[in-house]
Model the fold of this input.
Amino acid sequence: MKKELRFVVNGDSYDIWIEPKTLLVQVLRDELGLKGTRRSCDSGSCCACTVILNGKAVKSCSMLALQANGKEVLTIEGLANGVNLHPIQQAFIDNWAFQCGFCTSGQIMAAKALLDENANPTREEIQRAMDGHLCRCTGYNMITEAIQDAAKRLQGQKLQEAAK
Amino acid sequence: MSEYSVIGKPTTNVDGAAKVTGEAVYTFDMTLPNMLYGKLLRSPHPHAKIVSIDTSEAEKLPGVKAVITGKDTPGGKYGLWRRFHELADQEVLATTKVRFIGEPVVAVAAISEDIAEKAIDLIKVEYEPLPAVFEPMEAIKDDAPVIHDGFENNINNTRHIEWGDVDEGFKNSDYVREDRFTLFSQHPAYMEVHNTLASYDKGSGRLTVWASTQSPYFLQLGISDALKMREGNVRVIKPHVGGGFGGKNSTMHDSVNAAFLSMKTGRPVKIVFNREEEFTATEHRTAMHLAIKIGLKKDGTILAKEVKIITDGGAYTGLGATTLYLAGTFITFPYKTPNYRYDGVRTYTNKMWASSVRGFGAVPTVYAAETQLDRAAHDLGIDPIEIRRRNAMTPGYEAPGQYMVKSCGILPCIDKMEQRVKEKWTDLSKDEGIGFAAFAYMSGGIFNWIDTPYAFSGAMVKVNIDGTVDLFTQASDIGQGHNTVSVMICAEELGIGVEDIRLHPADTATTLTDLGAWGSRETLMNGNAIKAAAGEVKKVLVEVARMKLGENIVYDLEVKDKRIYLALRPERGFSYYDIVKDAIKRNDGEPIIGIGHYTPHRKGMISPAYGMGIQAVKAKVDRETGQVEVKDVITVHDCGQTINPLGARGQVEGSTQMGLGFGLCEDMLTDNGMVLNPSFVDYKLIRSRDMPQIELIDVPTYDPEGPYGAKEAAEATTAPGAPALANAIYHAVGAEFNSNVLKPEKVLKAIREKEKKGR
Done:
């Protein structure tokens, strides 16, 4: 028996009917066509599928889509402002914080959730927040540096806005 | 020569925006209209005869469109060692018997993944289990079960390398020691699983295949050999790839079965492995037993080395036969070895086959050689840095009949390392130690076991009327950043910017052959092909500019910063864009096209150039728990002229993560051929919090064979992490290890043994 799922993804409202067993990642990728959220491990142990649900980073492979009912989801596709990249995205590019890019969407969404909560994290705080995110390419250090760089950019942006 | 405009400048990834927005398309993200989903039924037995297969129930299941067994396939054998027919030993599906747990036996295509999985459950296979063998030392015994007919004692391949007079060398040595090692496997553990989308065109009889591969050309050959098709009728396109690390060179069961199911059904078919299938039935690093005997003079000079290796090959060949050769080669690097003898044996065993993983051949062997060297240095009372310096190769060094090393920065790397460690690590606390390991690796292989008639790499450059450039090449960016390197080389040669160039990579139908991304070959080999192609275009543009200038032939022209001008009088010249317009007009309206190729010639048996360096690890050992903490890492390397410092650093960081994982925690556990830990929960990678910071120091050289002097970067650095760590533990607490995966229990046991013996 299909059930109704009403939720907001990247600012758009959706009202769809799905099998109750459907995972959030399946709805995002297969129903909504948001392929930027990727799966890698099938066991909730790599965090590649991380999205933001009501402000918190969650693994979209480890929850039912119906658990997002009435909630707001932000995926990698919702981060940039039109053709202007989000400062975290630009910091990932400038710091070579990805190579193959397959885990990158999850890394960036987790970084967003972290910086929303803690605008100026230390290296150790970043490593702790990002610890479950597996990456085979970068060795992590350049991701940590990109997040530190992004924190600075976001703070600069805030100061500029405050000055206006 | 004037300074480069593009080469050597930190350049952000040309695929950057696509990758940080999630828009980059991987095979994993692709679907086609009317597409079917394929699944594989795999063997639960390590070695068994297939008595019968009953697919009738599966075929009746609504939504199932095809069920195939080995007998339905065209029966072509395939593999990467296709020059030697008997080593092209893979099958699309096992026909008469299975040789490892997880070997595919039946393939299904259905309208959904769920239905395909249900159909798999309905298939009944009757097996007659055969005695199996899992250990190489058991496999070579006369009474061992035979895995492949015609391969006596399960010997898949052997390799002998020798130069100098080894026995004489040992006779003249003041100090001789022999150590035995067991080196365990490692999974490449890329984030994107193997997956393939295949589409068969009923009208033309041609196949188009999109796959997560390191080499579109190898895959094209694999599929055409397996399905007995003309090569030209198989088009392979490589979209973005979520990592390979050596594990995506071979043609795997996803590709050949998706292709054949598409031919059977006339519909596109996609097969995606899950992570458990990855760990149980895809290629991993070659495990081995290794004996190494070394003879030195009192002053630490190496006089002789003898190495014997027997590798655990698993059930098929893959690139494992190449691994055997490279193991015998890179265990000598980067030291002068006047007398050397190597004998390697690769055995078939009833396990998933071992093949190439990042630094293949080097990672396990360098572990043995570099830890043994520290023991010898200790016994001889020589400093670990000093013994390495005393034996380091120098430019022009030749191993007779095997390899020659042209650019060679190992000595300045060692000097720099000594100085840096003295400055930086002044305050070693209790139970902390410093370990060193030197390393080197090839810039692409010279060997041609794939038996290609084509040049090893090709590229085509087309210049359009507005000065934009289309660059076509089959080279594979699998994350290492080669797309950026390709565009940088093309831009430097034409004196334009990376933004002027649109890259069309990795499509066997529209690009000139390149053998793919393995053995660190793309920068040197594909870089040379691109430089040659762009050079052809440059020649035309310079000719046109020269005619317009009307200057005497002896005046040199410079092509740089989007201008073409007299080298001695830079103000006399033209804009690149104007010359392009003139050149196309003069060429009867044809765009300017340049084609370039590269194949190494007269460069020895291994590689045209070698990257190298030395790594130092500072580690702290907890004597109570055996826990080891990597505190800090310094790497000094010579990769010739660095093309992109951002990308090169990224590669060093990533390979160090993999190398430390090989040393510390990555452990593929098997029991009677069954992988016991096939998930990221139980197979431990180094994570963000475990990762030390790495200081990278570049010692530039110029390699005459590389584009702009460039050569291998950062595949070699997969090797030193584990031995440098083992050496750090050795110097901290005196414990010795003759294997990798230094888990706390192993470290603790070694500490206790050391204490028992007394220091």
Remarks:
- Chain B has three domains: 16-23+456-598, 31-130+191-243+248-281, 284-447+604-757.
- Chain B touches chain A through 56 residues (CB under 8 Å).
- Chain B has a mean pLDDT of 97.
